[in-house]
Design brief:
By secondary structure, this protein is of the alpha/beta class. The protein has 3 domains: 11-86, Archaeosine Trna-guanine Transglycosylase, Chain: A, domain 4 (Roll), CATH 2.30.130; 115-264, Ribose 5-phosphate Isomerase B, Chain: A (3-Layer(aba) Sandwich); 265-495. The protein is 29% helix and 19% strand. The protein has 15 helices and 23 strands. α1 (138-146) crosses α5 (240-259), α2 packs across α11 and α6 (288-301) crosses α14 (471-486). The longest helix is centred in the middle third of the chain and has 20 residues, at 240-259. The two termini are 46 Å apart. The relative contact order is 0.14.
């Protein structure tokens, strides 16, 4: 995708072969677009306008890639959106590994101030965690965490004597029982185990009810979880009050040890950065996502790892990633995921193309193909080195793809379970999001959004649209911020204490 193309005002023209361009601001009928082309309709900001006549059934291109097919004739200068653009079948050339090239690593890798755990892994934050095996223990876990809760607006801080502890967080969910044993239970346990062993937690207590399908002891044995972890269930402890008291006693017991950490200089190769987007708009694939892609390349070139997910938001563009796969096997794993999702959505009476949300469409995105092509830009240009299941541990260095749904909290939960210690989240409509225990950096696609929600946005990539900096310059700015945040600088979402309610394991399977 050529996101550096010259873009004449008042539109963004991404590639000479494109049949549509993007409105930089709202265009009124009669507004000149390019040589001899004027807008025939009112074109909202971020939406598409035709720069050549398109016959019914003809492919429509953006990024020099197919984003759909005209459902009726489209005239020069006409608004192109859901009323005249739809999905269609077309052949994809997967060309496994054809574009894979050796990664150009930097000579002097960047560093950040991280927390080195006894097992050698590096943390970017230092929390004490309370996990739950089942929804039935969620309230009790919340009561324990509330006893140690900092209040950002009142200044009350029960952890004032423990300045190196970032907080006590209860991560609860809505399942754990009423579920069949098999893949749904395995997936839940894999997610909880990923959080239990996450380096951003110094200690963990797992709370259960006692009679649930997801038995704590079995989960601990299955995933060989022993270090730093205490477990208790409400029935064995003798009820709510006794369990809360025991949970609070555990936290008090480990606070001093958790506080006894120091940040030290560590290489950027210790970064595992989750790549997310939510509330996307027509600018996402032009500004914030390519800029995050440039930052991703810097992470990889410094020896680190980036994790792209949201399989349903890669659908239709997977052939671009397969060409960058380090092997045919890796590329085929990605294609197999797409086939699984086709079957899965069909079985449940849904369509993958239903993925663009009302907000996405209001922002100018029409089909999942268009959304996917913009979303995949977050992963930059390096090789695809691995494709893994939801919440599986990320062990490869470089660009890794994890299978997840497109729903942001569920997707990010899987990435953090896999080991992500920083999250980068782009948005064009204005998603507010946090992801404890890993800090979340929010990146705005356009300047009006950034100015409107500056208290929630960490980075403004509208500067690219405004002509103030290039994609590469914005990417360098994001990379520098990643290093500072990994070193302890607070993000906007952390200042608002986001990140507890966003914990959302993928509820795969039926409820019985």
């Amino acid at each position: 995708m050529n996101v550096h193309a010259v873009t004449p005002q008042p539109v963004i023209w991404l590639h000479p072969n494109d049949s549509v361009v993007i409105a930089r601001a709202t265009l009124l009928p009669g507004t000149p677009i390019a040589d001899g082309i004027v807008a025939s309709d009112r074109i909202p900001a971020g939406h598409k306008v035709a720069v050549r006549p398109i016959v019914s059934g003809e492919e429509v291109r953006r990024y020099n890639q197919i984003i759909g097919f005209a459902t009726m004739p489209i005239a020069l200068g006409q608004h192109v959106h859901v009323h005249n653009l739809g999905m269609g079948e077309f052949a994809k050339d997967y060309a496994y590994g054809q574009d894979a090239t050796p990664t150009e690593y930097v000579d002097s890798p960047a560093t950040f101030k991280g927390i080195r755990r006894p097992d050698g892994r590096v943390a970017t934050r230092n929390y004490i965690g309370i996990l739950t095996s089942v929804n039935c223990s969620a309230h009790v876990a919340g009561l324990v965490a509330d006893a140690f809760k900092r209040h950002p607006f009142t200044g009350f801080d029960p952890l004032a004597d423990y300045p190196h502890v970032d907080g006590v967080v209860a991560l609860t969910h809505k399942t754990g029982c009423g579920m069949p044993e098999g893949e749904p239970l395995k997936l839940l346990r894999r997610t909880l185990a990923g959080y239990a062993r996450h380096p951003n937690f110094s200690h963990i207590v797992v709370l259960g009810l006692g009679c649930e399908v997801n038995q704590i002891g079995e989960m601990l044995r299955e995933h060989k979880l022993t270090d730093r972890i205490r477990n208790m269930d409400i029935q064995s402890m003798g009820g709510t009050r006794k369990t809360v008291e025991a949970g609070m006693a555990f936290v008090r017991e480990v606070l001093a040890e958790a506080n006894h950490v120091q940040r030290e200089t560590v290489p950027a190769s210790e970064l595992k950065v989750a790549l997310q987007c939510g509330g996307s708009d027509g600018y996402s694939g032009v500004s914030a996502n390519p800029a995050l892609g440039a930052a991703s390349d810097l992470v990889v070139r410094n020896g680190g790892t980036v994790i792209l997910s949201e399989t349903t938001e890669t659908y239709g563009a997977e052939h671009i990633f397969t060409r960058r796969a380090v092997s045919c096997e890796v590329g085929e794993k990605l294609v197999e995921l797409m086939r699984w999702w086709e079957e899965y959505t069909h079985k449940h009476g849904a369509e993958i193309n239903a993925n663009p949300s009302p907000g996405n469409k209001a922002g100018g995105l029409t089909t999942i193909l268009e959304k996917s092509l913009g979303a995949m830009a977050k992963a930059g240009s390096t090789n695809l080195v691995d494709v893994i299941k939801y919440a599986e541990p990320v062990t490869a260095r470089g660009f890794v793809f994890m299978d997840t749904p497109g729903f942001d909290p569920v997707s990010a939960t899987g990435q953090v379970a896999g080991g992500a210690n920083v999250v980068c989240f782009t948005t064009g409509r204005g998603s507010v999001f946090g992801c404890k225990p890993s800090p979340s950096i929010k990146i705005a696609t356009n300047t009006p959004l950034y100015r409107s929600m500056e208290e929630d946005m960490d980075v403004n990539c509208g500067t690219i649209l405004d002509g103030e900096e290039t994609v590469q310059e914005a990417g360098q700015r994001i990379f520098d911020l990643i290093l500072r945040v990994a070193s302890g600088e607070r993000t906007k979402s952390e200042l608002f204490d986001f990140g507890t309610d966003e914990f959302a394991p993928w509820p795969l399977g039926v409820t019985v």
